[in-house]
Design goal:
The complex is a heterodimer. Chain A has helices at about 10-15, 30-40, 40-45, 65-75, 90-105, 115. By secondary structure, chain A is mostly helical. Chain A has a single domain (about 10-115), classed as Cytochrome Bc1 Complex, Chain D, domain 2. In chain A, helix 2 (about 30-40) packs across helix 5 (about 90-105). Chain B is α/β, with parallel strands linked by helices. Chain B folds into 3 domains: about 10-240, Thiamin diphosphate (ThDP)-binding fold, Pyr/PP domains (Rossmann fold), CATH 3.40.50.970; about 265-435, 3-Layer(aba) Sandwich (Rossmann fold); about 450-645, Thiamin diphosphate (ThDP)-binding fold, Pyr/PP domains (Rossmann fold, 3-Layer(aba) Sandwich), CATH 3.40.50. Helix content of chain B is about 40%, strand content about 15%. Chain B has 24 helices and 19 strands. Chain B has a 6-stranded parallel sheet, sandwiched between helices. In chain B, strands 9-8-7-10-13-14 form a 6-stranded parallel sheet, covered by helices on one side. In chain B, strands 15-16-17-19-18 form a 5-stranded parallel sheet. In chain B, strand 7 (about 285), helix 13 and strand 8 form a beta-alpha-beta unit. In chain B, helix 5 (about 75-85) packs parallel to helix 10 (about 210-225), helix 7 (about 120-135) crosses helix 19 (about 515-530) and helix 17 (about 460-470) crosses helix 24 (about 625-635). The chains are: A mainly alpha, B alpha/beta. Chains A and B meet through helix 3 and helix 6 of A and helix 16, helix 17 and helix 22 of B.
């Protein structure tokens, strides 16, 4: 309760893993992926739509890693984000999560949102 | 069972006491009140309800001869002392060990300055003094029951301690076992009341006479308001409260309060710090609890602009307007700095180091080799051993034990003197670069807000913050809560300009601070007049002591509470999940024991039951603007209002 968790290093990790970005993504089921995303707790740090916050970086719109790098990162990360091994998150479940994150619709341009557009320059 | 004092004949003592001696020495107004009290018919002695008394009454054995005081009680003088210290409020949950001073506050003192504020938990009472101090800039009093009441209050006292917040805590106690009733009154008595919270109060005393009380109360106030501002504890002995002021004794005198000027830094050390800053290529200022007063903001801006150095705000107080081009949130600039000036940092080590919350617990120094560190703060002047709020030890190059706000004008002047002519153009260019970067950063913030699940249900933190800002930006508003649970979106989207518009966090991170501290802050804003108080309230925190809502309603303190309802002790979900990940066990069970589901709490109904206007739950962001508008209208009509908004986790 008393300790604030900050996940700041993940963005660096994303960058380092981008060398794996060439391989194609496997087919996943976004609906199942959304359920998995909730079940295994990705939403806790990254938000229900992967939008991120002070406990976890944004991982959707766009998904910052191609599949192989995404897989490697989830399995091996050793910073504030704990690794999810295949034992607790099977490959196919992770494939579906990847599909869900890719399915998150693109956010509107802030200039089309009056509450935000009016803020710039003020 | 009749109450009989042992040793001293209490009734004879009472009958022989009179106000005359005391009234000659206390100030004229107070003496007049005391004399007026002395002319009133003597009140019947009211026996403390107790199990034994109830049993006796049932058996028809009640002592039919109640005692009389024969003069004003000592607690009237205690109220005179509190009035002399200009207390506005006494936050308290009523209790038998404080009955004497309670009665004096409401009758003798007229329940004005200080006014008795009815609280539903001692933890809330002290937390209210905490929030009040951070807006009013002076302490309020809390009055706690002996032992159990102070035990309740302990965590709130620790929060105030960690947050460098002055609070004047009083606790009732009857030390004399021979005159104590058996049963509960004795269970609630203690040899040394202060021992319970001594580790996290700056000073405490247990006065054994009224003169002693006067001197110690004034001293306690002075100590609490000398940087570092901290809570203090005064024992209000029951005998002193309830017995009459002693006849024929030396006149009682309330000492004059004179405040200690905050300590400024040693000029030689400050000059050395200025030299380092003036010659730095990338100086960075980090501010935690710098601005004790509005003047602190002005002084910090002057220093930042003299150097055109970015200021990283750690949000311990309202330190700097967040639309200033040199304002920064987060620590991204730390690795680039060649000189870092830390001002009143709670955690210098954590500012320049990073420790992963991983199984390996890797620790990394974040600064580059050769970076010079300067510390100015009162933390080095005052430290205790047991509780670890002093954080890890961080070696620095120049350590100035002084109040930062008091030292900043000297430092700024020395910086101006130390900047060579050939560096002025470079420093000016640094300022121009900061202005351009700030404008670009502002656009990025708006883009990030749109990407923060803008249209999602539950409502996103950015959406809530933007909708709220849209409703309050043209008001005389004040945020009476922290905003870290919302990923600091209010600080990223709003314009926070005035010292009173933000009060920082709980200090000790003890849950249950948020709601009562917001109420206490709102009391101070109500005094200031016309400010719209907004409390963005964590749902789990609110359930520690929801009775604080009743206190706001009862005392007509208008406040808009927006329940940041993520339906969990959310941080704990993440912690339990982390443990499951480390151990490669089921990661789907982290919600057990950490979530507030089944049933969901209907906070609007809870609030209605506690005298608020209740709105919600709001789950659709499209409905949020109208709900906020309605809530603000209710608050403007004097109605404390709560809007339950079901939110994303962070």
């Amino acid at each position: 309760m008393r300790r604030v968790i900050f996940v700041a290093a993940a963005a660096v990790t994303f960058g380092a893993a981008s060398a794996f970005a060439a391989a194609p993504a496997p087919q996943g089921d976004a609906t199942k992926g959304k359920a998995n995303f909730e079940r295994v707790g990705c939403w806790e740090c990254h938000g229900h739509q992967g939008q991120g916050g002070n406990a976890g970086v944004r991982i959707a719109d766009p998904v910052p890693l191609a599949w192989p790098a995404f897989l490697a990162w989830v399995r091996t990360t050793s910073g504030d984000m704990p690794p999810f091994t295949e034992k607790v998150l099977p490959n196919q479940d992770l494939v579906d999560i990847f599909a869900y994150l890719q399915s998150v619709p693109k956010a509107p341009d802030y200039r089309t949102i009056p509450l935000l557009a009016l803020q710039v320059g003020r | 069972m009749a109450r009989k004092d042992k040793g001293v004949d209490r009734r004879k003592f009472m009958a022989g006491a009179a106000i005359t001696g005391a009234a000659t020495a206390i100030p004229a107004g107070m003496a007049a009140r005391a004399q007026t009290a002395a002319q009133q018919p003597t009140a019947a002695f009211v026996r403390r309800p107790s199990t034994a008394a109830a049993e006796a009454e049932m058996a028809g054995q009640v002592d039919p001869s109640p005692g009389t005081l024969g003069g004003p009680p000592g607690s009237d003088f205690m109220v005179d002392v509190l009035k002399s210290l200009d207390f506005d409020y006494v936050f308290s949950n009523p209790a038998s060990s404080c009955r004497g001073i309670h009665e004096s506050l409401v009758n003798y003192g007229g329940n004005k300055k200080p006014e008795f504020i009815t609280c539903m938990h001692e933890e809330s009472a002290v937390a209210m003094t905490h929030g009040y101090y951070k807006v009013a800039g002076k302490p309020a009093a809390a009055l706690c029951h002996g032992t159990v009441g102070l035990q309740h209050a302990a965590m709130a006292a620790y929060n105030a301690w960690c947050d460098r917040a002055a609070s004047f805590i009083m606790v009732g106690n009857r030390a004399d076992a021979a005159t104590r009733e058996p049963g509960v009154p004795t269970i609630h008595a203690v040899q040394d009341p202060g021992s319970l919270i001594r580790d996290f109060t700056k000073w405490d005393d247990n006065p054994q006479s009224l003169q002693h009380f006067a001197e110690s109360a004034v001293r306690a106030y002075k100590i609490a308001m000398t940087p570092p501002h901290e809570p203090v504890l005064m024992v209000v002995e029951e005998k002193l409260q309830e017995n009459p002021i002693e006849k024929g004794a030396k006149p009682l005198v309330i000492p004059k309060l004179n405040m200690v000027a905050p300590p400024a830094g040693d000029p030689n050390a400050v000059r050395a710090a200025a030299q380092l800053l003036a010659m730095a290529d990338n100086p960075v200022i980090v501010a935690d609890r710098v601005a004790r007063t509005p003047a602190g903001i002005k002084h910090l801006i002057e220093l930042a602009e003299a150097l055109n150095a970015p200021v990283i705000d750690q949000l311990g107080r309202m330190n700097m307007p967040n639309r200033h081009p040199l304002y920064q949130l987060g620590g991204a600039l730390i690795p680039q700095a060649d000189v870092i000036l830390g001002l009143e940092l709670t955690d210098f080590w954590g500012t320049v180091n990073k420790m992963d919350d991983s199984f390996a617990g890797e620790q990394r120094l974040r600064i580059k080799p050769g970076t010079k560190l300067i510390s100015i703060g009162v933390g080095d002047l005052y430290i205790r051993a047991n509780y670890q709020d002093f954080e890890r030890y961080q070696p620095v190059d120049i350590s100035i034990g002084a109040d930062a706000e008091a030292t900043l004008p000297m430092l700024t002047e020395y910086v101006r003197q130390a900047i060579p002519a050939d560096r002025r153009a470079m420093i000016a260019a640094r300022g121009e670069k900061a202005k351009k970067s700030f404008a670009a950063a502002r656009e990025r913030v708006m883009a990030a807000a749109a990407q923060n699940a803008w249209d999602a249900s539950p409502v996103s933190s950015a959406r809530l913050s933007a909708e709220l800002w849209n409703q309050i930006s043209n008001e005389n508003w004040a945020l009476v809560s922290r905003d870290s649970s919302l990923s600091n979106w209010p600080h990223r989207l709003w314009e926070v300009r005035e010292h009173h518009q933000f009060i920082g966090g709980p200090g000790g991170a003890g849950i249950g601070y948020g709601l009562p501290a917001a109420v206490g802050a709102s009391f101070a804003h109500k005094q200031a007049g016309g400010r719209l108080c907004v409390n963005i309230q964590n749902d789990g925190d609110s359930m520690s002591a929801p009775g604080a809502l009743w206190t706001a309603a009862h005392h007509r303190v208008p406040m808009l509470t927006v329940m940041w309802n993520n339906r969990a002790y959310h941080q704990e979900i993440m912690h339990v999940q982390r443990m499951a990940n480390w151990r490669q066990r089921d990661v789907s069970t982290a919600h057990i024991g950490t979530t507030i589901w089944d049933p969901y709490v209907n906070y609007a109904k809870v609030a209605e039951g506690l005298g608020h206007v209740g709105i919600g739950p709001i789950t659709d962001p499209k409905e949020l603007g109208a709900a906020l508008k309605r809530g603000i209208e209710a608050v403007k009509m004097g109605e404390p209002t709560l809007i339950d908004v079901v939110c994303q986790p962070r």
